Amino acid sequence: MPLVPRHLNPRSRHAHNSSALPVEFKFTQNQNPRFGQKKPSRKITAKTNWASPVLFAVLVLLAFLFPATADDVRVGDLATVGGARDNQLNGFGLVVGLAGDGDKDPVYTQQAMANMLERYGINVESIITQISAKNVAVVIVTADIPPFAKPGSRIDVLVSAMGDAKSLQGGTLLQTPLIGADNKVYAVAQGAVSVGGFAVGTGGTGGSTVTKNIPTVGQIAGGAIVEKEIPTSIVCNNTVELLLRDPSFISAAIMADAINNVFTNSARALDSTSVQVRMPEGTRNNLVDFIARLEDIEMTPDVPARIIINERTGTIVATANVHISSCAVACGNITINIASAPVISQPGAFAKVGRTVSTQQTTTSVNESKASMVPFPEMPTVQEVAMALNSLGVTPRDMMSIFLAMKQAGALQADLVIR
Q: Which of 124, 185, 215, 360 has the fewest CB atoms in 10 Å of its CB?
């Protein structure tokens, strides 16, 4: 439900001495700031008095009768503020308490354990090769520190085994400094490792092992404490820069136009990725409020016609703007079966010479399914494309080949991305 503007709120200090004055309200639906064009809208004009007790109920009813356009997306969901970015941290540490699933006594694990014991006044350099590391694993700890993270705040960390440990389940990460690209410590991680999998079994020759997910990678929610803030600057010469997550000249122009509808003549698109916004005079002393209002502006972004194909998993994802020109498609399958069976050859009964031997007999067969040419009319929507391909009874693997052939023939009006 949309909030009542502050200057229209009867309880606001801006509305004093206005209860006796009739005010005219206009509610407009489906406004689309796409290059200044607007969709056909419906307006309801009502004259009322702020002293009326049913005003709030009327506003609630109108909000449900005329909801916002479903295709509108907030600017904050499409772009990030330039300069307000994450930074990567990493560290080298030890996970202990692995109940025999740790490293198999590699030199670097023994040396790391010796260095840790030396910090507590225990010198084991002379017997370093005798240290058992079966309950300890050397790990790499990684984390992303968000912008404006203050000292004392917590961030999540990812813990990955570096050696030959079988599992990190039940382990505890010892205090590990996390450094940035400048080799300075910005956070310190420690805590119990949470692993979303397991590995059980005897292993080895003749043994069996059951593994679920990846037990050598775990995470610690809020496992690192920020020790030093990374300086962040987002304003330069009274301007803020918005960076689109999916670069597009059309989306950048639409975003600038939508912002200008709220802050007049303040935004301009620099390229397909960045939109520069000049801060109005009344907002320069309240940066947080200005960016919050900026990110809350709604717009209809441009969605490119694109088909993503992942051959490893057999996944196909297509956007709604995929267009296929008129063409004809035939898809046939060839199945090759190669069977090898042992054949026993032995001499006849009561034979005095000869011996029984085993040979292999191989049989090869080829089956080619019949497929007729199916004409496809012009299909402007992805729903029609999906229905046409499903009518052929093809598998996702076949669809990949069909999309590739359509692109090569010039009938597929979309960007084809193969992973």
A: 360
Is the CB of residue 228 less than 8 Å from the CB of residue 151? yes
Average pLDDT value for residue range 373-396: 72
Number of domains in the chain: 4
Report the CATH number at residue 262. 3.30.1370
> 145 and 222 in contact (C-beta within 8 Å)?
no
Q: Among 186, 201, 226, where does a domain finish?
A: 226
- Bridge partner residues of 366 (DSSP): 336
Question: Residue 410: which region, alpha, beta or left (left: phi > 0; alpha: psi -120 to 50)?
Answer: left
Residues 322, 378: Cα–Cα separation, whole Å: 11
Please tell me which residue, 252 or 337, carries the higher pLDDT value.
252
Going by C-alpha positions, the residue among 106, 96, 100 that lies closest to residue 134 is: 100
Q: What is the pTM of this model?
A: 0.65
Using DSSP's 3-state secondary structure scheme, residue 166 falls into coil
Domain containing residue 201? 87-226
In 251-332, DSSP assigns E strands to 267-269, 274-278, 298-299, 306-310, 315-318, 323-324, 327-329
221 and 321, same domain (yes or no): no
Of 22, 62, 26, nearest in space to 44 by CA: 26
